[in-house]
Every structure is written in C-alpha cells, then in structure tokens.
Write a structure and sequence with these properties.
Blueprint lengths: L1 H12 L2 H18 L15 H10 L5 H12 L6 E5 L5 H9 L7 E5 L30 H7 L6 E5 L14 E6 L4 H11 L3 E9 L8 H11 L7 E2 L5 E4 L3
Parallel strand pairs: 1-2, 1-4, 2-3, 4-5
Antiparallel strand pairs: 5-7, 6-7
Helix pairs in contact: 1-2, 4-5, 7-8
Length: about 250
C-alpha cells in the first residue's frame, strides 16, 4: 500500500511526460496486491498491425499464446522443410502457422483425433480442490470445420486419428516447425519422440501447454524427453515452451 501511495502522489505532481510512467507504476502496484502483473508498456503486441490483420481475417481477438505461435513460425518461414501441428482443436494455430509461411514448397501437416483429447493419465490431473479434471473427448472439434477454416491453404494435409497412429505417414519428411498442443502427457511425449529426429537444424518445436498450470503432464513429458538431449526448453510468458533443434 505504501508504494501505491507514493506513486499516486507522484502521479498528481508529475509533468505530462512522466505522468504515463507513474500511472503505469500505480496500476502495477495495485495489480501486484491482487496477484496480477501488468504488461510492460514498452511494446504492445495487441497493436502489431501485421498480427492484427491476420487475427481479424480469422475472426480472432488477441491471445498471447497465438502471438508466440505466429512469431516462432515466422522465424522459420524462409527455411526448407514442412510444418506440422499436433492437436489443432479449431485450427487457430494452423491458421497462424500457414499465414507465417514464406516457402511455397512447404506442406503443413495436421494431426488430430477430432474427437477431443485421449485418455488422460493420473499425471495429467492436479488432484486438488477446484482444479479441472481432464476427461477423454474434452476439446472435441469436427474435422470438417477445420478444413473449412484452412481452405485458403491448399498445401495442407489432414491425418485423422489418435496420436501417434498416423505419424508414420510422414516419416520421410523433414520439418522446420512443429506445434504440439495435445494437453496431455502421453501424446505430448509421443509427438516429441517422433518429430525430434525429423527436425532440421534451426527448426523449432513448440509445446503450447508446457508451463500451463492446468496441463502438468505436458511439462513432465517434455522434460523427460529432453533429459538426455542437448536442447533445453525455453519458457514463454504465455506459458508455452519451445526448443531450437541443434545441428
């Protein structure tokens, strides 16, 4: 409360140039007391014109995880190799990956049961009061809807089935960007086991659920898989995590 009082006093006496700084500090103090943090005003990704154009075309609103998907996919967009998404839900992640793509020879591969998540293991649930408990078929969304969403991108292939049943169909492909968004331990582990050796040097594997409190199995799977690998996962502010494949 003392810091809030000091910043409130400074806000009242600050000149026009400093007023914005002390307004942010005051609001941030109040947010801290309630367990929140304000985003730094140095950069405002929700006002990025390129990202906004893509969001508006898809009918989306700003989402920090989606922003990371797009930025990381864009970083590999000029490379050779394909892209993939494991667990597509409504196709939002694939929409961003495909918009980021710059190589006309790249194909995007979509893997999903389109019947929701697979059977969760005990490690996938927090088992504490108030915590969400995963159940098989959560997050189900039909393939036809995703096909419609991604119809502007003809170089997209669809593989309906439980992960990892259909991975073998792309065993001869090399990948530059793979987005793993399957929420649970086993399919996350299966995705990393398959795609890791198919990644080109400099390619990125992104786990959407890596540091999210509601998906403890995803982080466990990634950490177990990387235990004997040269890469370490980088945690994003959005709660995802990614690796850059070494040569």
């Amino acid at each position: 409360m003392l810091f809030s009082f000091k910043n409130a006093k400074k806000l009242l006496t600050a000149d026009k140039k400093q007023r914005r700084i002390y307004r942010y500090k005051l609001l941030n103090d109040i947010a801290h007391r309630n367990g929140w943090r304000l985003h730094s005003p140095r950069y405002e990704p929700w006002n990025d014109p390129e990202y906004l154009r893509i969001l508006e075309a898809g009918g989306y609103v700003f989402n920090d995880k989606k922003f990371m998907i797009y930025q990381l996919a864009k970083s590999t967009a000029n490379m050779a190799g394909d892209t993939a998404e494991c667990g597509v839900f409504k196709g939002n992640g694939s929409w961003l990956i495909l918009h980021a793509e710059k190589n006309p020879d790249s194909t995007h591969h979509v893997f999903d049961s389109f019947e929701g998540v697979s059977e969760p293991l005990p490690t996938d649930n927090l088992n504490r009061p108030g915590a969400y408990e995963w159940k098989k078929h959560d997050m189900a969304h039909p393939l036809e809807s995703v096909r419609g969403k991604l119809s502007p991108f003809p170089k997209t292939q669809y593989y309906k089935g439980w992960i990892p049943e259909r991975f073998a169909e792309v065993a001869d492909r090399r990948f530059k960007f793979v987005h793993v968004d399957v929420d649970l331990y086993q399919p996350t582990l299966d995705s990393f086991k398959f795609f890791y050796d198919k990644m080109l040097p400099g390619g990125i594997m992104l786990c959407d659920d890596y540091a999210c409190p509601g998906t403890p199995g995803a982080m466990q799977a990634v950490e177990e898989f990387l235990a004997d690998k040269p890469e370490n996962a980088v945690t994003t502010i959005a709660g995802s995590g990614f690796i850059v494949k070494h040569g």
